[in-house]
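Quick one from the shared queue. A colleague (R.T.) flagged FAD-dependent monooxygenase as missing a structural entry in our internal table.

Convert sequence to structure tokens.
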Amino acid sequence: MSTPPLPPAALVGRHAIVCGGSISGLVTASVLSHHFERVTLVERDHSDDAPRPRKGVPQSTQLHGMHLRGMNILGNVFPGLQEELLAAGGRVLDMTESQAWCSAGAWYPRIRSGLGVGIQSRPLLEWVIRQRVQGLPNVRVLDGREVTGFQTSADRARVSGVHLRAPGGGQEETLEGELVVDASGRGSRTPQWLEALGYPRVEETRIHVDVRYATRLYQKPEGFEPGWESMALSPKLPEQRRLGVLQLIEGGRWLVTLAGWLGQGLATEDDAGFLEFARGLTQPHLHEAIKNAEPLGPIHHYRFSHNQRRHYERMPRFPEGLAVVGDASCSFNPIYGQGMTVGAMQAEALGECLRQGLGGVSQRYRQRVGKLLQVPWSMATSGDLRFPEVEGKRPPAFGLTNWYGDRLQRLTLHDEQARQTFFRVVHMLESPAVLFSPRMVFKVLTARLDTAPQHPAPEPLAARKPQSQVA
């Protein structure tokens, strides 16, 4: 869905620098192009001429999702982006009509939700966005460079640029700018660089979950038409710890991800192990679909050890001329699919802070992002904290909230209003507070969930063997 472009903005400076060409960095560069005469995007990897996984994004081969809030922001920053993704092979699927979704042992009804979700691989999404950014007349993409530190004013109260060099060594150069944005990802060196400049070390919150992913591409078999275009088998937390997702992406391919919490993900590299893991999911349908499908490459593994939030908003001192976005600020358990959306929200927030001028923007932005992150961080970590082995501070009434949430989710299976509200909250279109409105609380507490209608599962239908495998 396209939305109107960003409104005109007054220029506040001559040059801004974005460190990192992730999706968060690309969106930020575009936002800054409305506020600065020039923007330089510094990226360690070299630009590619096609949608391919790149070294700087080791998880790029894995399944990625973007919530509707994130896609709306992308449509605002890059008008017509959804149409370009569709032209490149992406798809828009209705959340429940096009997807077979089993959550905690119950299937959602296959009816139109009206919520169309963009589906494509991460490399395609990033590549299309990168083409748009490279086409901006006042944005320069400087690839094949790594940032080695900040340049500051003499009193170290302001970041005034960055030091660069070719990856692995070489002569260092300095790039000056009035605003530096760190979009370098989870491995950001900003905490160490600030500490070396005499600032206190930023406080971090970590919640260890040891999530392990295994993803493989398959060719969708000719003639296999089960009536759905993607499938998600979600566990009942905390008793179950594995999930499986099959998604139809560009090129008529299936992207299949198997994952698990607390070390329960797939660890083997062989075909038999992948299929056996799929067979052990809560429902047989995903295994039935892929057991005779043709693999299109190796199994790609990815391990995510912990949720990580850096509380820049709590630092008593922080330099002007610096902002941190995306995973460099906060990285979430990827199972919940919030990362790219929250990065886009931060880029949007930075642009709004710049509308008040360049002076004091770093302080305004970090305080605003501190509040912005509260809801997505709570949404992601509350699921992980349901596992008794996961260490972390549980909020007040945590058990009662989980009980309410479980009843609410069962209610969404047969109550259309509850389902629509719940999905809008998941996609960050509405605040979680709407789930506790008097009307919703009454429904949740009084619903006879034990007698609620059960929706039938899709008929298990094995994918037809490719002709070359037929005896």
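Residues 466-471 have pLDDT under 50 and may be disordered.
DSSP finds 13 helices and 19 strands in the chain.
Added to the table.
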